[in-house]
Structure formats: structure tokens, C-alpha cells
Amino acid sequence: MEDVFTRFFEHLVGRADLDAPMKFRLILQPVMAVIVAIRSGLRDAKSGKPPYFWALFTDRAHRASMLKDGWKSIGRIYILGIVMDVIYQIIVFRRFYPVETLVVAAVLAVVPYLLVRGPVTRIARGAGKKTAE
């Protein structure tokens, strides 16, 4: 079991090697996720919705619809991340590690999305109040 965890972390760290093939995806995916998060955050501010990530934990009544909305926004980028990581694994490792693929796609797409959408909503809402005054 220890070998599995060791391999897992070595592979994750190895993906950040700037000499590795397909290194563009380490920038492309998070940038795409941030762009989508900004669009979603601005839409949330305009419609009066609460900041996304915080509301996932505090608003039980709307959690399912919020998760569905988030997945609708980020789903294609996540799937693209999975495809790109599978290609990377085949090129570099000549094997496929599904759990690693899911983790890498989540780190490169979902995490930036979650970190950006809520603050964009707050900033846009704050900017809207200042212009209204």
C-alpha cells in the first residue's frame, strides 16, 4: 500500500516538471477554469446569489442546485483535463492510473474554479454598490 502512495505522489510531482510533455495543460486548465469562474461569479452577483463556495456549506436548501450549476459551468473543463491527463499518462508512463487522473483534473480545474467564483461575486457586488451610491 505504501508503494501505491509513493508512486502516486511521485507522479503528481513529476507532472509539474517543466520539461515534461504537455506542460501547457498546467496553465491552460486553470486559466480556463478561472475564466469560467469569473463569468459565473459575475452572473451570481447580478442575480443576487450568495458567494458560491461559502454557500455550498451554509445553504442546505439550494446545495443540490448549486452543485448542478457548478458542474454545468466547469464540467467540460474537467472532462478536458481528464482526457489530457490520460494522454499524458500514456505518453510518459505507458499506463493509465484512473485515480491520479481524477485528482489532477480536480486540482487543475475544480480548485481554481471554487477559489475564484465566490470572491468575484463579492467584488462585483461591492463594485455595484459603490456605483449605485
Please give the alpha-carbon distance between the first and last residues: 61 Å
Order of helices and strands: HHHHH
Shape: elongated
By oligomeric state, this entry counts as single chain
Percentage of residues in helical conformation: over 70%
Say how many strands there are. 0
Please summarize the sheet with the most strands.
none
Alpha-carbon Rg, integer = 18 Å
- List low-confidence stretches: none
Overall pLDDT metric: 87
What's the number of helices?
5
The proportion of strand residues reads under 5%
Describe the structure.
The protein is 82% helix and 0% strand. It is mostly helical. The longest helix is centred in the last third of the chain and has 35 residues. The protein is elongated. The chain starts with a helix and ends with a helix.
Considering the chains and any ligands shown, give keywords for the structure:
about 130 residues, mainly alpha
